[in-house]
Design a protein that fits this description.
Layout lengths: L4 E10 L2 E2 L1 H10 L4 E3 L1 H5 L6 E3 L5 H4 L5 H4 L5 H16 L14 E7 L4 H12 L10 H5 L3 H10 L5 E2 L7 H14 L5 E8 L3 H9 L30 E9 H6 L6 E10 L13 H15 L8 E3 L8 H12 L8 E3 L2 H4 L6 H15 L1 E2 L10 H6 L10 E2 L4 E8 L3 E8 L4
Parallel strand pairs: 5-6, 5-7, 10-11, 10-14
Antiparallel strand pairs: 1-2, 1-8, 1-9, 3-4, 7-8, 9-15, 12-13, 14-15
Helix pairs in contact: 5-8, 9-15, 12-13
GO biological process, one term: fatty acid biosynthetic process
Protein name: 3-oxoacyl-[acyl-carrier-protein] synthase 1
GO molecular function, one term: 3-oxoacyl-[acyl-carrier-protein] synthase activity
Length: 424
């Protein structure tokens, strides 16, 4: 028998909301976190808009000691620590005491690139012959596993503590890795999630690829969202999301509030073959991932009420819809409701999967589907594939039982997880 896995805590740091309450209000009301940044204009970026979470210096002191804040210059670590510790507290858990770690709890917290600003600072100091001024935290702020190491020390986790990295699929992959560890009986609880740094040194490469929109710098909150006929590229974002996964028996024993059950999922790769590339998904692999997630979850395709898609606002949006149709064998009026968070906060890169998993579970738990913003005029290819009402423009209140969350990342890697309303 495999252990059932449920979600008992969540935390989020997003461009349009920090903390579950603020974030839920934002996605329900279509509040955007996308803004113009003068720094990007000064650096001659084509796309001068993006999404950054707003965190005050006072709020930081609730999560870091004065010593930890000294020299801390990694936005990804800041976002990840806030989201992760919030998820831990939301689950009603206490930090391990000072004498021994919590052997039953672990962490899988991913990132794409971490500590870019700290790297830049370090390069200048080293080139100037001032290595001793780097500080004692420069290594932990720039190593990929810095985020899981920070959280592991703060919470005192004694089970597996590690970091994964799979581009835009990172957060969804981390969740499935934690799910499998609990399912196999190797841990009772796993804090899973992902984070991403912000700023020009992270976003510059995408601007150079010309896949970011450059014609909405004066009207950032009017930039066309995913699924729109006018969408001209994704908007960069940053932040972190975290979910506390727990063995169902453990959660019931301690009387924990349960948001949803993780039924299963699938990860795979298209091998950058058959139309797949470094930047585009192999459609056959995506369809296999959809079918595998359904099979592994023990459900039927017709039971899925809603999809939170990867959908970035590029030319790949219609392809993703077609892959869902073929993977589910459902189209037009029979297609599930579908939405994308990226119109409200941008594409948060390695943090996107985890933030969007939090949004998916909130929808399931609270019985609503948030609206797709700035896509009043649907992409013509999409409008021929599925019924317009399956792409809500405003939030709708509706009973939900099963929701699928998808992430497709650079390198032709895919991840899909299936969440279900908890049943005894």
């Amino acid at each position: 028998m495999k252990n059932r896995v449920v979600i008992t805590g969540m935390g989020v740091v997003a461009p349009n909301g920090v903390g579950l309450e603020e974030f839920e209000t934002a996605i329900r009301n279509g509040q955007s976190g996308i803004e113009f940044y003068q720094e990007l204009a000064d650096l001659n970026f084509s796309c001068q808009i993006g999404g950054k979470p707003k965190i005050s210096s006072e709020k930081l002191k609730n999560y870091f000691t004065d010593l930890q804040l000294r020299g801390l210059n990694s936005s990804g670590i800041i976002y990840g620590v806030i989201a992760g510790t919030d998820a831990w507290a939301d689950a009603g858990l206490s930090k391990a005491d000072e004498e021994a770690p919590d052997w039953d709890s672990g962490i899988i917290f991913g990132t794409g690139i971490l500590g870019v600003d700290k790297f830049r600072e370090a390069i200048h100091l080293i080139d100037a012959g001032k290595t001793r001024r780097l500080g004692s935290t420069s290594v932990i702020q720039t190593m990929a596993s810095g985020i899981s190491a920070y959280l592991g020390g703060i919470l005192g986790c004694g089970n597996q503590v590690t970091t994964n990295s799979s581009a835009c699929t990172t957060g969804t992959e981390a969740l499935l890795m934690g799910f499998e560890r609990i399912q196999a009986g190797k841990a009772k609880r796993m804090l899973v999630g992902s984070c991403s740094d912000h700023g020009p040194y992270v976003w510059g490469g995408f601007d150079a690829m010309r896949i970011l929109p450059g014609n909405y710098n004066d009207t950032p909150q009017e930039a066309p969202g995913p699924l729109s006929a006018l969408a001209a590229g994704f908007i960069p974002g940053s932040g972190a999301g975290a979910l506390l996964l727990e063995d169902y028996a453990s959660a019931k024993e301690r009387g924990a509030r349960i948001y949803a059950e993780v039924m299963g999922g699938e990860v795979n790769s298209g091998g950058q073959r058959g139309g797949g590339s470094m930047t585009a998904a192999n459609s056959q692999a995506v369809q296999r991932c959809i079918k595998g997630a359904i099979e592994n979850s023990g459900i039927s395709a017709n039971e899925i009420d809603a999809i939170n898609g990867h959908l970035t606002g590029t030319s790949r949006d219609p392809v993703e819809i077609e892959n869902w149709i073929l993977g589910l064998d459902r189209k037009k009026e029979n297609f599930p409701y579908i939405n994308s968070l990226k119109g409200l906060m941008g594409h948060c890169l390695s943090a996107s999967g985890s933030i969007e998993c939090v949004a998916s579970v909130l929808q399931l738990y609270k019985n609503f589907i948030f609206g797709n913003v700035n896509c009043e005029k649907l992409h013509p290819e999409i409008s021929t594939l599925i019924a317009s009402e399956k792409i809500p423009r405003k939030t709708i209140e509706i009973p939900l039982n099963i929701i699928a969350k998808a992430s497709f990342g650079f390198g032709d890697v895919n991840g899909i997880v299936i969440f279900k309303k908890i049943t005894e």
